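Morning run. Coffee first, then this:
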Amino acid sequence: MRNFKKSLLSRQSKVPVSLSRKEAIQLVETSYLTAASALIWIALYYLPIGGAFFRLALPLPLALLQVRRGSSCGFEGTALLVMLLIALMGPIRGPLVLFPYGFLSLWLGWSWYRRINWWISWGGGVLIGTVGFFVRVVLLSFLVGENLWVVITKAGLLLLERIIDIGNLNLVPSLFFVQIVALLLIVFQELIFVLTLHAVAYWIFPKLKASIPTPPRLLGFLVSWEPI
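And here it is:
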């Protein structure tokens, strides 16, 4: 009798626990949106065209997952994304997706899920994007064996020279001033990028049964049309 009970209990312990409908949907959404993010990152990394489009689209799937299913699913999706890309691209190129796109998607998804004001989510996104840009520059410089900050500094110098020529100014910029201009270019780029992410999400997410907070009045011109 005791042996029969033990065998019965062991069989019951081996019976798989069925998922609820909500858990199954969360699992499927996490898998599909993570796979979409991985494909976008691979396309951004390897394809010679469409970089601006892929860069804009990359943070949105995981942010959408977090808005629809909560923060835990967002963190699970990000962790799964990193593991998938490590398997596909290696231990260095795979985690690069975190800087800044992975952390940016987590921040924006959390902010939109919590209905945080656009000014806060925008400012935090710009900070994450700027720091992530520098981390990516350092890691890529290590990979290629060349200081990529020199390329960014040259871009700042070219902009300064053009401004000096247009204004007919008698000015010779110092290296420190050129680097400050390069830093401002990066911050300006992130300002436009994160604000565009807010606008695209505001237009698209309602069609996917997710929504983000309405923009403040000063940014109302971005959403003067109804969400698509």
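The radius of gyration is 23 Å. Good start to the day.
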